[in-house]
């Protein structure tokens, strides 16, 4: 469990530097340069992700059950992850109306993904993993929206065709992940 917690602290900490220490990125870029800063950020994030995967995998071998979610929550999780994938796709497709409206669709997608998995799983490791991501994404989304409003930042209005591209990409990504990759990478079949 310690490895899972360390990974969460590292990954979410790195992704919270603008909240925790707003000047840290600028100071790091000034000292190291933009590319070395991005490499350091990516390496630390990857280490955190590896620790999370290994720690969560170990915790699943001897789970501490906190509650027994009803079977229908797995169906709810499968349904909720679909819009989460669409929102995550919107973060990478420029010019969507969805991004213009939300401002930070990736963080909104993480919020829905974490909530869906928290509802459908009832072990201590699940609470730590998905609960941490849920709390982080709620705080991050609110903070980023507040920052955007204070700066007068408006995301450019998007087009319906860009929304369609993001929606299709999100649905395809969701289908591939739920149909094949979730079992291969996580060891759990969402639909079976």
Report on the structure:
The protein is mainly alpha-helical and 192 residues long. It folds into 2 domains: 1-62; 65-192, no CATH class. The chain contains 9 helices and no strands. Helix 5 (72-90) packs antiparallel against helix 7 and helix 7 packs antiparallel against helix 8. The longest helix is centred in the N-terminal third of the chain and has 28 residues, at 34-61. The protein is globular and about 45 Å long. It starts with a helix and ends in a 6-residue tail after the last helix.
Quick take:
With 192 residues, this protein is mainly α.
Record keyword descriptors for this entry.
192 residues, 2 domains, mainly alpha
* Element-by-element helix/strand order: HHHHHHHHH
Apparent shape: globular
Number of structural domains: 2
> How much strand?
under 5%
Counting DSSP E segments of at least 2 residues, the number of strands comes to 0
Q: Termini, distance in Å?
A: 28 Å
Taking all Cα atoms into account, the compactness measure Rg is 18 Å
- Poorly predicted runs are none
H/I helix tally:
9
Q: Give a short account of the largest sheet.
A: none
Q: In terms of structural class, how would the helical and strand content be classed?
A: mainly alpha
The overall pLDDT, averaged over residues, is: 93
């Amino acid at each position: 469990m310690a490895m899972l917690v360390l990974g969460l602290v590292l990954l979410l900490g790195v992704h919270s530097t603008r909240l925790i220490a707003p000047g840290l990125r600028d100071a790091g870029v000034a000292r190291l340069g933009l590319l070395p800063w991005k490499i350091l950020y990516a390496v630390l994030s990857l280490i955190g992700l590896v620790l999370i995967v290994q720690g969560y995998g170990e915790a699943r071998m001897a789970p501490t059950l906190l509650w027994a979610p009803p079977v229908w929550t797995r169906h709810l999780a499968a349904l909720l992850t679909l819009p989460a994938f669409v929102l995550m796709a919107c973060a990478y497709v420029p010019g969507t109306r969805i991004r213009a409206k939300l401002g930070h669709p990736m963080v909104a997608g993480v919020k829905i993904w974490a909530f869906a998995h928290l509802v459908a799983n009832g072990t201590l490791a699940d609470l730590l993993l998905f609960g941490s991501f849920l709390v982080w994404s709620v705080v991050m989304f609110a903070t980023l929206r507040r920052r955007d409003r204070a700066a007068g930042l408006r995301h450019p209005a998007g087009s319906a065709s860009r929304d369609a591209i993001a929606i299709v990409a999100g649905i395809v990504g969701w289908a591939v992940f739920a149909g094949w990759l979730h079992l291969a990478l996580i060891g759990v079949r969402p639909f079976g």
